[in-house]
Specification:
The chain starts with 5 loop residues before the first strand and ends with a strand. Strand 5 and strand 6 form a beta hairpin. It is an alpha+beta fold. It is 36% helix and 25% strand. The longest helix has 20 residues. It folds into 2 domains: 165 residues, Ribosomal Protein S5, domain 2; 140 residues, GHMP kinase, C-terminal domain (Alpha-Beta Plaits). Strands 1, 4, 5, 6, 7, 8, 9 and 14 form an 8-stranded mixed beta sheet that branches. A 4-stranded antiparallel beta sheet has the order 11-12-10-13. Strands 2-3 form a two-stranded antiparallel sheet. Helix 2 packs across helix 3, helix 5 packs antiparallel against helix 6 and helix 7 packs across helix 8.
């Protein structure tokens, strides 16, 4: 019923097989399929209520007014699907450092898709919800689902959707996020991936390799093979970052603090503590590990970083209404 306030919670996800490039920018159809782990510590709560008295959408993020054309465009897609013209009040509380490579747009658009579509009177299944979330931000496609999730590349709006790979997660797996910088990034992922697909001479090899990595990680999940999952995720992340370096102009999300964490992971591993690193479109590093090693890793990190910078997270749930 229009006029009812609906609130949804979506958790963010970290890709183990990265998405880095669009085949169709308008519909956000990716150049490759991707696979992620949804995290329980980072999430967005979003409320939407359609209100006949408004003459534009009114949006707040963490109680600050925001004026973002992307959000209005996204709401227009919901309005078109629901055949309504009414504007909405949108209140979003982000429990993720915004734009810091912790994929805040993933939880943001997943929560907005869920709350917005339901408030507009649509009753979408999870696949259609993931297709809607995709129109806001690619990585949001995967945040509809808990645990291990994937985004099927597809080739049009119908066939490019998210799905569950395994939830609840059977593997003992955690991610330790090291927050090195929570300022908005200088080169948005949207812009970065466009430069890479257009100019990196290695882009074709990336597609070939990442398709293999997808299968390897899918098999590792099925076989509960943490080692193969971690190794492949680390390689895939660095393969993605090598696209940034080989673009024209080149750009880089890795900074000197990121390198320090990467070296710590290598040292830990040499000392028998199994862990792997991954990075997204920002300097923060996420360490992939199993429960027994969390203390050894956080001890080592605390030599250099404060407790506030170190966030341990297990697998998180899919979309839910509050
Ligand atoms: C991912 N990232 O798979 C990759 C890895 C960052 C690095 O998806 O343009 O905010 O809104 O579709 O989803 C971040 O890009 O980009 C991202 P748009 P998005 O998680």
């Amino acid at each position: 019923m229009l006029g009812e306030k609906i609130t949804a919670r979506a958790h963010t996800n970290i890709a183990l097989v990265k998405y880095w490039g669009k085949e169709n920018e308008q519909l956000i159809i990716p150049a490759n399929s991707s696979l992620s782990l949804t995290l329980d510590e980072f999430y967005t709560d979003t409320s939407v209520i359609f209100d006949e008295s408004l003459d534009s959408d009114v949006v707040t993020l963490n109680d600050n007014a925001v004026n973002d054309e992307k959000i209005t465009k996204f709401m227009d897609i919901i309005r078109k699907n629901a055949k309504i013209n009414t504007f909405a009040r949108i209140r979003s509380i982000n429990h993720v450092p915004t734009s810091a490579g912790l994929a805040s747009s993933a939880s943001a658009y997943a929560a907005l898709a869920a709350a917005g579509s339901k408030a507009a009177g649509l009753n979408l299944n999870e696949r259609d919800l993931s297709r809607l979330a995709r129109r806001g931000s690619g990585s949001a496609t995967r945040s509809i689902f808990g645990g291990f999730a994937a985004w099927n590349k597809g080739n049009d709006d119908e066939s490019s959707y998210g799905y569950s790979i395994q939830n609840p997660v059977k593997m003992d797996i955690n991610m330790i996020a090291i927050i090195l910088d929570n300022q908005p990034k200088k080169i948005s992922s949207r812009k970065g991936m466009k430069i890479s697909i257009e100019t990196s001479p290695y882009y074709e090899s990336w597609i070939k390799q990442t398709t293999e990595d997808f299968q390897t990680i899918k098999d590792a999940i099925k076989e509960n093979d943490f080692t193969n999952l971690g190794k492949t995720a680390e390689l895939n992340a660095m393969r993605m970052h090598s696209l940034t370096l080989s673009s024209d102009p080149s750009y880089l999300y890795i900074n000197s603090d990121s390198l320090e964490v990467i070296n710590m992971v290598k040292e830990l591993r040499e000392n028998g503590v199994e862990c792997y690193y991954t990075m997204d479109a920002g300097p923060n590093v996420k360490i992939i590990c199993q429960s027994d090693n969390i203390n050894a890793i956080t001890d080592k990190l605390s030599d250099k970083f404060t407790n506030d910078q170190i966030k341990v997270s297990g697998p998180g749930e899919g979309i839910k209404y509050l």
